[in-house]
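Fold it.
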Amino acid sequence: MGNTFAHIKELADTLKKYTDSSIQLMKLNAAERGSDIIANILAKISVVMILLFFLVFVSIVFSFVLGEWMGKKWAGFLVVAVCYFLAGIIIWAAGGRLIRIPIMNALIQQLFKKEEDEEDQ
């Protein structure tokens, strides 16, 4: 009888260790995925910021060129501003398809990338 209780106690200890290990593994997997997603987002934000600076400087140069061509510098800036306004309206109207859905797809792909890599092996 005492031997049976010892086996049950040993089984319970093993089960507890297994459960603790499983929880620890889930935490580590979540931390890995979270850090991977954050690193990916920060890298893309950095690239977008550099491209935005490039776009701003090109827009200023284009505004000056248009202003010289039209004879009035303010007219060049007005034309560029109207172009940005129209682009903003188009992006606002199609925001779900152009921005929200690709971001959601990228996050989902990033979340399940690890599982796909494990299935390939």
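The mean pLDDT is 85.
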